[in-house]
Structures are given as structure tokens and as C-alpha cells.
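Ticket #4471: structure output looks truncated?

Reporter: J.K.
Steps to reproduce: submitted the chain below (155 residues) through the standard prediction queue, then opened the result file.
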Amino acid sequence: MAAEQGVGGDAVIRLTSRGRTIRLLVTVAAVALLLYGTIAGSDDMFPFGPFHMYSRYYPANGYVTGTSVQAVNAAGRQVTVTEADTGLAHGDIEGELKAFEANPSRLASLAAAFHRRHPTASPFVEVRIVQQRWQVKNRKVVGRTTATLVDWHAP
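Returned output as attached by the reporter:
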């Protein structure tokens, strides 16, 4: 970088041709990653790929779905399991939904993660992934259903 005298005696720093070349290459690489991510990317490429959770359009009429993890503890109390409870993000659980459906015993790992974070809490005896589905007509909810997609019971 070269320094010159600016207005009022302040130093003005100008980039060298090497500095400009580096900035140009970084800009071209960032634009290329954004284009590739937009065309062929997945959530794993964020921020260079789309984040599908926020990129969907819901029509004025149709269905909107939401997934949650529910558990029942040894005291019989039903609780909604959050990321803070297990350390696993909601999106990660949704992304692994097919694997949970193929092997429901994987839900035991959520129960174990909860107990590592809350060792004095009542243990989970059941964990399930539940999907809520809202029917929308003219952007107003006109119906709601709930279905259990995967269920695990402690041995």
C-alpha cells in the first residue's frame, strides 16, 4: 500500500496492484460460490447455498407443516424437546427424519443427550417426532391435524 498526502494533510492509503488483484480474485470466488450454491446448493452450503427453511412459498390455500419432538418423562409429564434440551438443532432433526423413521431407536440418542444436559431431571421414557399440519384457506387456518411420524419407548 502506498501512502499519499490527502486534503487537510491526512494520509491517503491506496491499494497496490497486488492488493487490487487479491480483492478482485476474492470477489470473483465469492460470486462463483453464490451462483453455484443458488443453482445446485443445499442447506449445508449456507451462506453460499439456500436456507430452505426460509425460502419456501406457502400458497393462500393448501397445507403448512411443522415438526416437533415430544417426550414423556418417567413422571408421566409430556414435554416439547428443544435444541437447548439436547444440543441438536430442530433443522438437524428434520434433516435426519428419514433415518429416524428407518431406525426409531435413534430417538434414544435424543433422550441420552437430554439426560447429559439435565442429569437430575426425570428421564424420558418415550420420545416421538410429531408433525402438525394446518389446512389454510385464503391464508386463514381452517383445520389442523397432528400425526406421530416416529415413536420410541425406553426398554
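Triage note (M.O.): checked the attachment and the full C-alpha cell line is present. The beta strands are 2-5, 11-14, 62-73, 78-81, 124-137, 140-153.
Status: closed, working as intended.
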